[in-house]
Amino acid sequence: MSKNIQETHLNRARASLRQALSWYGNLRKPGKSSSNSQLAGLVKPELEMLTSSLNKLDSNMIRIAVFGLVSRGKSAVLNALLGEKMLQTGPLHGVTQYPRSVRWYPGGKVQVELIDTPGLDEIEGEARANMARGVARQADLILFVVSGDITRTEYQALCELRQSQKPLILVFNKIDLYPDTDREQIYRNLQQLGRANPQSQPLKPDEIVMVAAEPAPMEVRVEFPDGRVDYEWETPLPQIEELKQTILYILNREGRSLIALNALILARDAEAAIASKTIDIRSSQAEDLIWQFTKYKALAVALNPIAVLDVVGGVMTDLALIRSLSRLYGLPMTGYDAGKMLKTILFSSGGLLLSEVGSSFVLGLGKSTVAIASGENPTNITAYAGTAITQAGIAGYGTHAIGRAAQVYLEKGCTWGELGASSVIAEIIAEVEPNTILYRLQQELSL
To answer: For residue range 284-331, what is the model confidence (pLDDT) as tens digits?
Structure first.
């Protein structure tokens, strides 16, 4: 992708996060009510996540996390990339006890943070495994290190990491231990298994790389000028250049888009959590509000004798309810958005709420006719009352159902709309080119 497109992705991501912080910024200041104070404390981690994501966008820092099972050479791969042994390695399982990050400056303006993680299958290491999976959420790019054919445990771990919605490179380490024929066969197997989805295509060349991060010592024959022959152990240089060039090529081709996409994914999850917590803590107030509008609409419809005004007044009441719920939750909503939401709710309810509008109009016509006739025959007042009560019941039910549906839409739809995180994510994924590593997200993941 061109640098202009990548820069556009970055700018769109920044605008989305700034908009989110503007929307939810009032939650930083606890209100007078106990529910506001409690909510401010509950959403503090999500607000900090939005702020840190925006700061990361401004710093242009790429995070690359390495994962794998124990003894696959994860730390050795990072040491080889760095060109020096900064991370501890060894023959024992579990040398890496906790995630550790180091800075890598591969050249140019690229800044990379390499994150080493504990093995995902360590005995009694579930806490460390959970910690490692948490790192995946912060990573822009994932390296998954194997040292041969993928085992069942590795395949399961790979599938879990795919769900983090991050681009992934499969690193086949310790190739120095395999003959060329076996190495090529394992490579082909990894191409098929590494996709982690039977419907997807095999891994592309820049999604699987073969390396020897810490080659085993080799015995070499040494001949001296005087004719003597001796044998010494020599450690070959790491075979890491292909991985380094692959990473640099990806970062140059789509690095800024990677940063933007990851920041938006974090923002989307944070906003969804804020919406969920807000709706949960204010459920009692929302219930009172819904019932208030339900009773108001039922009473207004029952007393109004004009059919057309019944329908118009009912729709206006439903729109006001949606706007009131939005204000109660502190979630973004404009009059135009409320109208679109009401239309969506009506058409997504299997015609049930549409029939409520239709019934209201038909009953309203009958009620109007009875009201006119009651001037000539007072006994028609009973018929008017019966029609009004029926119409009021239907109208009240419709408003209550719309209020319930609006709660769901407000929670699920907070990341959509203009500059919403989900909207910008969809835009970025739609614009990536087929030869990019981001393109697989478009094929495999449901954003």
So the answer is: 888 888 888 888 777 766 666 555 566 666 778 878 888 888 778 776
Q: What 3-state DSSP class applies to 209?
A: strand
What is the DSSP secondary-structure string of 309-328?
HHHHHHHHHHHHHHHHHHHH
Provide CB contacts within 8 A for 317, sequence distance 6+. Answer: 293, 296, 297, 300, 399
Burial status of residue 364 (CB atoms within 10 A of its CB: 0-12, 13-18, 19 or more): buried
One-letter amino acid of 201: Q
**Both ends of the chain: CA-CA distance in Å?**
21
| CA–CA gap between residue 95 and residue 118 (Å, rounded) | 8
One-letter identity of residue 351: G
Question: Is pLDDT above 90 for 129?
Answer: no
Sole residue written with tokens 């800075």: 103
Per the CB < 8 A criterion, the answer to whether 170 and 157 are in contact is: no
Q: What is the percent of the chain where pLDDT is above 70?
A: 71
CA contacts within 13 A on the Cβ side of 316:
9
414: tokens are 């907070």
How far, in Å, CA of 357 to CA of 362, rounded?
9
CA distance 365 to 362: 5
How far is residue 189 from each of residues 68, 72, 163, 329, measured CA to CA in Å?
17, 17, 21, 51
**218-223 vs 168-172, strand pairing mode:** unpaired
At 223, is the secondary structure helix, strand, or coil?
strand
Q: What is the DSSP string of 398-424?
A: HHHHHHHHHHHHHHHSTT-STT-HHHH
CB 396 within 8 A of CB 345: no
Strands (E), 179-325: 208-210, 218-223, 229-234
- The 10 Å Cβ neighbour count of residue 155 is 14
